[in-house]
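Lecture 7 notes. Example A: sequence first, then its structure tokens.
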Amino acid sequence: MITLDGHSLTLEQVEAVARAGAPVRLDEGAGRRISASREFLARLLEGEDPVYGVNTGFGRLADVRIAKDAQRALQRNMVRSHAAGAGRALPSDEVRAILLLRANALARGQSGCRRAVVERLLDLLNLGIHPVVPEIGSVGASGDLGPLAHIALALMGEGRAEAGGEEGDAGQLLAGAGIPPLELAEKEGLALVNGTQAVTGIGIVAAQRFGRALDTADVAGAISLEGLRGTPQPFRAPIHSARPHPGQIASARRLRALLAGSEIRESHREGDPRVQDAYSLRCMPQVHGAAREANAYARRILATEANSATDNPLLFPDDGLVLSGGNFHGQVVAQCLDLVAIAAADLASISERRIERLLNPDLSGLPAFLSPGPGMRSGLMIVQVTAADALSEMRVLASPASIDSVPTSASQEDHVSMGMAAARKLRRSITLLETVLAAEVLCGTQAIEFHRPLKAGSGVERALEAVRDRVPPLIEDRVLTGDIAAVLELVADGALSNPLARNST
């Protein structure tokens, strides 16, 4: 059970709710803050002062005053008009992340909504009812208006939702679960749609996948090093303490552990004419470590954003303040997601170069394309083509979305982050990175077969066991799509990210 208090939600908890369906409840202290915020808003509305989005219109229409008897209709109208998304529906894990993050933001008690709004969001999570949210419809400023409006629409019993893999009318799904439609009160539509939770939710799901891919890249590289009879000398600790970037040190430490006890290494320790390996082998700690630094930065940004109030205006009951600002602007999230996409493309780039070295007999000293019978058999020739195709697309996706801006809302919102585009790009980029790493693992494990009966390092042998549980060594040419898919599943699930923890019994 994960308890939301608006301040302490972790990325791991977001993933547990998004992907594993962990149950969620509201912290009682947070519930009291929410109620205090609502009471403060009610007192404000007894006066005549304008409160943006409550007794005024939205955006360019902020100078239009709304009569008291029309203020609740204003919220309903805003949700309906803003539910203007297009394109494919977001997958359920991303929708669940968004629901959780929106509830956590409201749990801070600075949005003026009722406790029932937060609890209704949690009901959707705990009952597995997921609003259908089109993936196109946010420029990442003034909040993720379109995606969040589709979620608010479902709370109102309108629009579409999905439960148990079946899509249907949101109102009917709520009724079937015994949940009445939510009647929005003053500011509650605005509190639901005004925030960065769509870009942040999609970003967290992608960032968690990237973390697993990062660890798997070290493993894939260690497998390739053994297959190419490379040296682990460049991974020794003194080299990295001389340039003490934490990510570089971490990757070097992991590579040393994965390669420890290698019989393949001992077989060529003496008499090897090579003085140094190519950069794609020798510089793994430096390149993988750079991606780790990007990942650490992105995780910090995403963790902060997951526990932030990002709607407008914000209420501060203890200080008697209602303040309009711009916390809904997603620039900091958009930039960090673009950085991860750049780091992912570079990880794929160095991985693809290792694949080339494994398959090219002029570079590997192994049979061409790792085929037991080159010429008559093509072996793994086209696996490198698949990796190259994925890498080319990743390089396009690494172009940052966050440097773009298209003014919206009659130029009231004249600088936007394009965070949703950054999030969609990153999601696709991580899938392609996992594909390239799967291709490298497939090639590297095949290369090691040519060194048998010698054993690779202990971590590499554990990883090879996991692969061989799914994919046999290549002896005769066969359709390789299934092999790539099997290894890709291991990569995506994180089954290869920490082979030293794999149960050897």
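Example B, a different protein, same format:
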Amino acid sequence: MGPLAGLKVLDLSHVMAGPTCALMLADMGADVIKVEKIPGGDDVRKQVPPKVGDEPASFLMMNRNKRGLALDLKKPGGKRVLERLVRGADVLIENYAPGTMDKLGFGWDVLKGLNPALVYCTVTGFGGTGPYAHRRGFDLVAQAMSGIMSFTGEGPGRAPVKCGAPLTDITAGILAAMGVLAAYTHRLKTGQGQRVDTSLFEAGIVHTYWQSAIAFATGVAPAAMGSAHPLSAPYQAFETADGWLVVGGANQNNWLRLVEALEAPELLAEPRFKENRDRITNLALLETTLAPYFRKRKTAEWLAIFDAKGLPCGPVNDVKQMHTDPQAIAREMVIEVDHATLGKVKTLGAPVKFSDTPGGVRRGAPLFGQHSREVLAEFGFSGAEIDALFTEEAVQGP
């Protein structure tokens, strides 16, 4: 089920950016075949601890909803298998180091010759063109070079800080999925496939929209501001009597709601806080002025008061608290899925909902080569041919 039901995707990617792209498509109903290298499989299988049973927790998260095929593309049999898979697929995703697919004999010219309707998606560190096209990329490097680490952290003069989440990996995967869907839409109109190319570097750059706008306008690169916002105030975290919360006084109406909720009409008489531009200009003073008000009550009390006023707010949850949040549960963002050997396994749900063609999580992550025989049979290999591929060790099973 799902809006992409019937779409056949070959996921040759590993670790996170490419697998995120394939995960998005799988959640929307695509049949995603995860093609893992022999030996060893996806490198994320080695990112342990922790494990769930014998399976790496990180692999379980990034590869649910996919079927697994273990393939050695350096063997003649492995190349024959991929050729046939490409002829019958709609999409191929890979995030190998630049030039790897060409070395394996499956560059874009070869792939489009095998299947002119193929949508071929590459996710690399810096993209397929430009002076850095040859470089390998990691999320850490992309966060640094895109500017993100310069405006993340507690404030000027402190050590550079990366976002705790692998921001550019995940964003590159989402951008790649968007690109795949756009290219597939074009194919439905014309019958022609094409190459989709995005990168971790570009994924980092798109997170600088506000900071780039400021730099273009002023000629000054914005610096780190803690949890504060460069264009709206107050829009940040405040310490309460027993923890932390965030509040979004992001426009004048919300500022007035906050003043009323804090029972602090005296703040309205302060000219340095009158309008948003004044509050941004005097942000340090605003923070120190508001801090004592927030420390008067506990987080839960403030959240109830702010919510009653219609003021955007929320607690600063840790990940386990997020997992038990009633909204996350109601939106099916924390679910259980069946795994071949582990039984029920917790995972995160599909973030996009559809009224008429619901997607969702249908299966757990595959064991190494779990569906090798099943997939080969679907693509027309006979039992004898499949046995020969296993004998050659071009293909492996669990």
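Note on Example B: Residues 240 and 292 are 9 Å apart (CA to CA). Residues 167-190 form the longest helix (24 residues).
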